[in-house]
Amino acid sequence: MTISTTQLIIALSIAALLGGSLAYLFWKQRKEMKIAIEQKKADPNQKPSRHLQLQAYERLILLADRISLTNVINRVNQSGIGVREMQALLVHTIREEFDYNVTQQIYVSQEAWEAVRNLKDQNLLIINQVASFMPAEATGVDLNKSILEMLMQNPKASLHSVVSEVLAYEAKKLLK
Hints:
Shape: elongated
Structural class: mainly alpha
Oligomer: single chain
Distance between the termini: 72 Å
Largest sheet: none
Strand content: under 5%
Number of strands: 0
Number of domains: 2
């Protein structure tokens, strides 16, 4: 069993390619480690996840604003649809926004996440309760007006500003 020159060259080329790839990966890993060490020396008090936590609080403040009833109604307001269709559209929009940001809970405190979840649940409850009192022939615009009137009569019904303040407070604590 003899090995031809071509087979030997191919085997050596593959070995060189694999060796070069491993050397490159080792060099890249060492470079990333040096950068991480330098960053740690620059600010030894900063936790590696602080940046991610701040981004999560930022996204959740944006979420709280996006699912506030006033903003949701302004974004999805459509004429020509019935009360049940508008109810479904409002509920779907809030749930979709919430679901899109659900992973942020791993970066924030349990209290902050509960506040966001309570805001979502409260807004869904308001939409569903107001819609349940509307006649079947009412329009989506009627539902939106009723929700906005209810919020104007009872400003404490909206948790949006309280939740935003809680999230901002916790984010500011991270900056200290």
